[in-house]
What we know:
With 126 residues, the chain is mainly alpha-helical. 60% of the residues lie in helices and 11% in strands.
Amino acid sequence: MSLVFDASAIIRLVELKPDKAVNALRNQYTVDLAYHEIGNYLWKISKLTSINIESLLKAFNSVISLMNVISIGLNSDAINLARRMNITYYDATYVYLTLKLNAKLVTEDKELMTKFPNITISIEEL
């Protein structure tokens, strides 16, 4: 089964289950927005902690390089989905790709899990 991982799931896997991350993410999907969301996350934690960002950056780049990273761009179907379901365009790109691939969306986002219960799973369900 194909899986689409949003940034929240990728972050959680790499940080909490690094031994599972490589196998879980290999040959699966994400959108190119994940780079920006993960980069923003790294920026935030670099301001709050003394954690080695370079090693985390390397870890994230390594696992994402194993994935199929899809560019959604500005997509009318994703915008309409965002408007109809009252979610951000960011979230809509992940949902749009999931629907397009007839896949499951792996997310830790409770709002997405509530609004799309038939297509979402958490990393605990992998």
